[in-house]
Amino acid sequence: MMQSFDSLMSEFSHNKVAWLLSVS
To answer: How far apart are CA 12 and CA 18, in angstroms?
Structure first.
């Protein structure tokens, strides 16, 4: 469960970075 949550957060963080780069 915890590993799955960590993986989800990692993917979310990556998506947020990509979104910020596209917005800049």
So the answer is: 10
